């Protein structure tokens, strides 16, 4: 870790991802000389201990809020990011944005450091850097390892995503349904308790949901493979934190078990279980940084295709940690 001291801001500091940002700053001893916390007006005046100092939450009220900052993390939704992230960059800070506002913009880098972190060095000046969708992040970490074995021809994924992906309202709906209370502000189209909902986001004319389209388009952009065939199906399940995925990966050529297992076993970014009778669950990944991969096996009828079970903490690796890792890659600039 660089010892350079940087000045940072966290927008949406009181939310689940914002709180994870603060926790990770402590855990990784991020070299910040100043931390400014921003949230909605309802949170003004709240205090949090960050890197050994008490920090007070302020609101986004004027154009001087980001002056003097080097990095600003955004985790407050598309509309706030659209308004304020470009302003932070204009005032001289790299804006690392967790919303979907800039992900597919051709003018903005969509970054998973393990996959395309080298592109951060190509940025000539402070600008908005997009953090990908949580379910995309864990999958491309896996795909990046697999393409070291052989070129990828096609990826098919089915996700099983926790209620935390919908924010605090997701937690509230599950908790209220579990207690058989009236749901005050339902965020899911159907009851989630003891249920599975095959819809995350709106359903488009092509039959895919907005969540599925994020995975399809973001994967191609992050991996710089616009012609890679990707298909996705996203399901909301009644777990609290952690996303799981079944991933079918078709290679250009047939690969051996030794090749696949060896590559995954030596990865610094993946915890791989080689025993096909053992597997990870979202509970294993809870509050952990790596992507967990297990049940890796070859498809019976398609020898070029391998199947993987992939789980990760969607709040950590799927959001805050990825943003922190982007920031760590930028540290040498300061």
Name its key features.
single chain; 334 residues; alpha/beta; eight-stranded mixed β-sheet; six-stranded mixed β-sheet; 9 helices; 25% strand
What does this structure look like?
The structure is a single chain. This protein has 334 residues and is of the alpha/beta class. The protein has nine helices and 14 strands. The strands form two sheets. Strands 3-4-2-1-5-6-8-7 form an eight-stranded mixed beta sheet, sandwiched between helices. Strands 10-9-11-14-13-12 form a six-stranded mixed beta sheet. A hairpin with a 6-residue loop joins strand 13 and strand 14. Helix 1 crosses helix 9, helix 4 packs parallel to helix 6 and helix 4 packs across helix 9. It is globular and about 60 Å long. The two termini are 13 Å apart.
Radius of gyration: 20 Å
Q: Strand share of the residues?
A: 15-25%
Which sequence of SSEs, written as H and E, runs from N to C?
Answer: EHEEEEHEEHEHEHHEEHEHEEH
Gap between N and C termini, in Å? 13 Å
Count of helical regions: 9
What shape does the CA trace take?
Answer: globular
What is the mean predicted local confidence, pLDDT?
Answer: 95
- What is the share of helical residues? 25-40%
- Class from helix and strand fractions: alpha/beta
Largest sheet: number of strands, sense, barrel closure = 8 strands, mixed
Tell me how many strands there are: 14
Arrangement of strands in the largest sheet: 3-4-2-1-5-6-8-7
Secondary structure layout:
Elements: E1 6-11, H1 16-27, E2 32-38, E3 47-50, E4 53-58, E5 71-74, H2 78-90, E6 94-97, E7 109-110, H3 113-116, E8 128-130, H4 134-146, E9 152-161, H5 168-178, H6 210-222, E10 229-236, E11 243-251, H7 257-265, E12 270-272, H8 282-285, E13 291-298, E14 305-312, H9 316-330
Parallel strand pairs: 1-2, 1-5, 2-4, 5-6, 6-8, 7-8, 9-10, 12-13
Antiparallel strand pairs: 3-4, 9-11, 11-14, 13-14
């Amino acid at each position: 870790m660089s010892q350079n001291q940087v000045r940072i801001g966290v927008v949406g500091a009181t939310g689940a991802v914002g709180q994870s940002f603060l926790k990770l700053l402590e855990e990784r001893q991020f070299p910040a000389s100043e931390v400014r916390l921003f949230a909605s007006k309802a949170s003004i005046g709240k205090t949090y201990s960050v890197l050994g100092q008490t920090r007070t939450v302020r609101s986004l009220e004027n154009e001087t809020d980001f002056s003097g900052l080097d990095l600003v993390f955004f985790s407050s939704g598309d509309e706030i990011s659209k308004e304020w992230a470009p302003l932070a960059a204009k005032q001289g800070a790299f804006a690392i944005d967790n919303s979907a506002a800039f992900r597919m913009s051709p003018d903005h880098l969509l970054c998973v450091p393990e996959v395309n972190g080298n592109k951060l060095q190509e940025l000539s000046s402070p600008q908005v850097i997009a953090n990908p969708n949580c379910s995309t992040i864990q999958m491309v970490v896996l795909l990046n390892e697999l393409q070291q074995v052989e070129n990828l021809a096609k990826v098919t994924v089915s996700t099983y995503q926790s209620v935390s992906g919908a924010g605090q309202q997701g937690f509230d709906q599950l908790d209220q349904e579990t207690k058989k209370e009236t749901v005050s502000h339902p965020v899911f189209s159907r009851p989630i308790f003891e249920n599975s909902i095959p819809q995350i986001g709106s359903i488009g004319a092509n039959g895919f949901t907005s969540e599925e389209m994020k995975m399809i388009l973001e994967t191609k952009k992050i991996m710089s493979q616009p012609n890679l065939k990707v298909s996705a199906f996203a399901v909301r399940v009644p777990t609290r934190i952690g996303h799981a995925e079944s991933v079918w990966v078709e290679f250009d050529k047939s690969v051996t078990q030794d090749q696949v297992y060896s590559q995954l076993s030596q990865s610094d970014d993946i915890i791989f279980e080689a025993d096909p009778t053992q597997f990870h669950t979202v509970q294993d990944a809870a509050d952990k940084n790596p992507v967990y991969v297990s049940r890796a096996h070859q498809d019976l009828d398609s020898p070029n295709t391998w199947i993987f079970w992939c789980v990760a903490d969607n709040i950590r690796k799927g959001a805050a940690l990825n943003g922190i890792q982007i920031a760590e890659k930028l540290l040498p600039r300061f």
